[in-house]
Design a protein that fits this description.
The complex is a heterodimer of chains A (240) and B (616). Chain A is an all-beta fold. Chain A has one helix spanning 220-223; strands at 2-7, 12-17, 25-31, 36-43, 58-66, 71-75, 79-84, 87-92, 97-101, 104-109, 113-118, 123-129, 141-148, 169-175, 184-189, 192-203, 212-219, 235-236. The two termini of chain A are 20 Å apart. With 616 residues, chain B is an alpha+beta fold. The chains are: A mainly beta (240), B alpha+beta (616).
């Protein structure tokens, strides 16, 4: 999956990929104070290429939980399940439905997206990416966006969560790279000096098929040096 | 005599043709017969149709001359009917027949060598119970029929999302599977039953028919989305049945009649049913029993949670119920209602839970407050719209209209429990229907300025396996889209389901589906509106009742429905109105068939003068 970190202070963005085997679950957000966690499980192409470089991976399942109130939301491209304790409620992506309960609001927009808000100050959006049913290579997959996170605590961590806190970086020495359309540069971040490449990713919040181009500095090697520790540190055994 | 001729009459064709579109069934039963005898003979036409159906047409064709049925206001029809009865020369009529059916019977004398064709049309909205729709036909021809055929077709307009109906399952219990062809071409399902003469024979050389059975088709629609709106010619219908929601915990008070008349099998069956119901009660639920005879006694002072221990105690209690005394419905119901209200006020039951009163009685109130209208008034005032009341009327000797009316005005319904070997299963079956509320306080909302003549759009409960159906008209037929919201409270959260209806896209899809009847949705709307007006009418008085009657009558006449307000009259004008066939709706009184003047159902027919040559 592709990760895009927008840095409004610099009016710029940083991006990286995490390449892991299908089935791997990654911790995206964990906040011990609010009790919110978001994990994502990776799926691969239909063909399941053994060559990890050629393989494309996506998020096929997302688990959003608030441990303080024992509520969980499991999202797949097929269905959406909300758990309150042990009691599930199941919805399809063909529903347009709004659910409200104490401190949680979920809106599913038929075949497009779902907006999950935990009170004021934490809002996530999950985008449904549908591929042509007879597409030989790819599965339907999910996109995950944090549109509001100011109520998350300073202890929030995870592949995305660690970037909720202000952080600084510097990019300099922009020079031609191996691809003439994508210059390389040096990034100084978290006391690491990294070689990054100018590229672009897409923000699909407004339109799940076309998307909006977001220019970003791409950090190679699974975000190594940008993320705290190694990307394997974020692998967790289960969605919840 | 040719095969299939009995007493000179050959019934050479009977065809039952059923078409279900959007749960609205259109059924046509056609029988053709010829009198092979050399004198005039009587030919009978019997059809058993569901009580919930409305007859819409009947025609009698004798030697090529068709005598159509006319739907008239009951009073107008009655005048013709009474005149004919007084002359001893009428009529065809409909009688209640068993639990689910009404029997339409017409007899006509047919001249030697003459042919007669009977054609009866009736329509019905199939309602979803326990996750399925059921189309039911009674098949019992009186003699062998050369061309006997039942064809049913379930289809539905595909909507733009392309997910609508498909037949998922069939249950057929008739004469052996070899006689039945089932073909499913999604989204249509077709079932054909066409036994040959030999297949109909009860034995190789017999002339009587072995066909005597129930032809039942059960199906459900493929439901990927909880709602579906269909619009045709400015009328719309909105089906809503969400799945995957957790069950809302319920607080049930069973108000059980233990008066002397319940003695014996009725009490035993009641106990058996309650014991089985107790096995199915969920631990989240709360319950209590209120027993009434001359006095009212309760199992516990207040509602108790259905823990395993309490369920065990409840079973012991039920096993030891004894019958005694008279029937005090008023005090028992008021006690149950008060108990539920108190439990809510004192927070003894979960905040997100729903309350239900289920009363079972086998007779009329005869002690305490025994005036039905006063009991109704007291109960309505006590419940005050907070929860539904369901009344189960056990056996024949009770005022069912009172139970029905009281349940309807308290957002529930009444159900007759037939005194039979399966009464316990009927009781349990009823409980299962209301045991799984998935939403409460359901309200279906449309934009006020765009929609008119809506059928009922608020429901106290949505039960798992049922379906909410709302129909209405668009103010502007040319509008391009509208939005429908279904709001309600679930077990865990408040829910709003939204349907965005794109009329242009729907019209495009509709044009591609040539099997849809053009006015189907309009007739469904009319059926539902009449049905609901008649229900409302049961609890209205004075001017309001007159208005409701007038509206229901106007629609019944406009859409040619035989409802409790109308009759269908078939006359032969050239015979000086001495042949009058009347089709009436008999209502839900099982004893009605012995009350209405059933003695007058034979048509006297003067055979026309025919010059006729026969080879022999």
């Amino acid at each position: 999956p592709h990760f895009i970190i927008q840095v409004p202070e610099k009016d710029d963005a940083i991006c990286f990929n995490i390449d892991e085997d299908p089935g791997t679950v990654l911790r995206l957000i964990q906040d011990p104070v609010t009790g919110l966690t978001v994990n994502g499980q990776i799926i691969g192409d239909k063909a399941g290429s053994p060559d990890s470089k050629a393989r494309k991976t996506y998020f096929g399942k997302l688990g959003i939980a608030n441990t303080h109130v024992s509520s969980r939301i499991e999202v797949t491209p097929e269905k959406i399940t909300l758990w309150n304790g042990d009691t599930p409620s199941t919805f399809s992506w063909l529903d347009t439905v709004t659910l409200t309960q104490d401190g949680l609001s979920v809106k599913i927009n038929k075949k497009k997206n779902m907006v999950i808000s935990f009170g004021d100050g934490v809002t996530f959006v999950v985008i449904l990416h549908e591929v042509w049913k007879k597409q030989p290579a790819h599965h339907d997959f999910l996109g995950f966006y944090v549109v509001e996170g100011h109520r998350m605590s300073a202890q929030t961590h995870g592949l995305l969560g660690q970037f909720f806190h202000p952080f600084d970086y510097e990019v300099f020495d922009i020079h031609p790279g191996s691809d003439p359309t994508k210059p390389d540069a040096t990034m100084l971040v978290k006391n690491h000096r990294l070689t990054v490449t100018r590229g672009s990713q897409k923000d699909y919040r407004k339109d799940a098929s076309i998307g909006r181009k977001v220019s970003c500095w791409f950090v190679h090697n699974n975000g190594q040096g940008l993320i705290d520790g190694d990307h394997r540190d974020y692998i967790v055994p289960a969605l919840f | 005599l040719p095969e299939g001729v009995v007493n000179g009459i050959e019934v050479y064709s009977t065809k039952v043709s059923c078409k279900v579109t959007s749960r609205f069934a259109h059924n046509v039963v056609t029988t053709r017969a010829v009198n092979r005898a050399d004198t005039a003979k009587e030919v009978s036409f019997d059809v058993e149709l569901p009580k919930t159906a409305f007859i819409t047409n009947f025609t009698l064709t004798i030697d090529g001359v068709t005598y159509p049925g006319n739907v008239k206001e009951k009073e107008v029809a009655k005048k013709q009917y009474e005149k004919a009865v007084s002359q001893g020369k009428t009529a065809g009529l409909v009688k209640a027949s068993g639990r689910k059916l009404e029997k339409f019977t017409v007899s006509v004398n047919v001249a030697a060598g003459s042919k007669v064709t009977f054609e009866l049309t009736y329509e019905e909205l199939l309602k979803r119970h326990k996750g399925k729709y059921e189309m039911y036909l009674k098949v019992k021809p009186k003699q062998l029929i050369k061309h006997f055929e039942v064809i049913t077709c379930c289809c539905s307009p595909a909507n733009p999302a392309g997910w609508e109906s498909r037949v998922q399952s069939h249950t057929l219990e008739l004469g052996g599977a070899a006689l039945i062809e089932i073909s499913i071409f999604l989204p249509q399902g077709r079932v054909s039953f066409k036994p040959s003469l030999d297949q109909q024979r009860s034995c190789p050389n017999c002339t009587d028919s072995l066909l005597d059975g129930d032809f039942t088709i059960t199906y459900d629609v493929n439901r990927e989305s909880p709602g579906n709106v269909q619009v045709i010619n400015g009328y719309f219908v909105h089906f809503f049945a969400p799945q995957g929601l957790p069950v809302v915990p319920k607080n049930v008070v069973f108000v059980i009649d233990i008066s002397g008349s319940m003695q014996g099998r009725k009490m035993q069956q009641t106990k058996d049913a309650l014991l089985r119901i107790l096995q199915d009660v969920k631990e989240d639920d709360y319950l209590n029993f209120i027993l009434f005879s001359s006095d009212v006694t309760t199992w516990k002072e207040s509602l108790v949670q259905a823990t395993p221990q309490n369920i065990q105690l409840a079973k012991e209690f039920v096993k030891n119920i004894k019958v005694e005394g008279a029937t005090n419905i008023n005090d028992a119901l008021l006690r149950g209602i008060e108990m539920l209200k108190k439990a809510r006020e004192e927070h003894l039951i979960p905040e997100r839970s729903t309350s239900i009163v289920i009363m079972l009685t086998d007779g009329d109130a005869n002690t305490g407050e025994s005036r039905p209208e006063k009991i109704q008034e007291n109960v309505k005032k006590a419940i005050d719209g907070e929860f539904p009341l369901y009344n189960l009327g056990f056996g024949k000797y009770l005022n069912y209209n009172f139970l029905d009316s009281m349940a309807l005005e308290n957002n529930g319904f009444a159900r007759r429990i037939y005194e039979d070997s399966d009464a316990d299963l009927q009781l349990q079956g009823f409980y299962e229907e209301v045991a799984r509320p998935l939403m409460t306080g359901v309200e279906v909302e449309y934009p006020h300025n765009d929609i008119q003549d809506l059928t009922q759009n608020t429901y106290q409960h949505f039960y798992d396996g049922s379906e909410i159906v709302v129909a209405g008209q668009l103010v502007d037929k040319d509008m391009s889209h509208f939005k429908a919201d279904v709001k309600g409270h679930g077990a865990l959260n408040d829910l709003t389901f939204t349907e965005d209806v794109d009329l242009e896209e729907m019209e495009k899809a509709r044009k591609e589906q040539d099997y849809i009847f053009g006015n189907y949705i309009e007739r469904l709307w009319a059926y539902l509106t009449i049905e609901q007006l008649l229900d409302k009418r049961k609890n209205s008085h004075g001017e309001e009742k007159e208005n409701l009657t007038a509206q229901a009558l106007e629609l019944s006449l406009k859409y040619h429905f035989v409802t409790p307000l109308t009759s269908m009259v078939v006359t032969k004008p050239e015979d000086n109105d001495d042949q009058t066939a009347i089709a009436d709706k008999p209502g839900d009184d099982p004893s009605a068939s012995s009350v209405v003047p059933v003695m007058a159902y034979q048509v006297s027919y003067q055979p026309p003068q025919v010059t006729y040559v026969d080879g022999d």
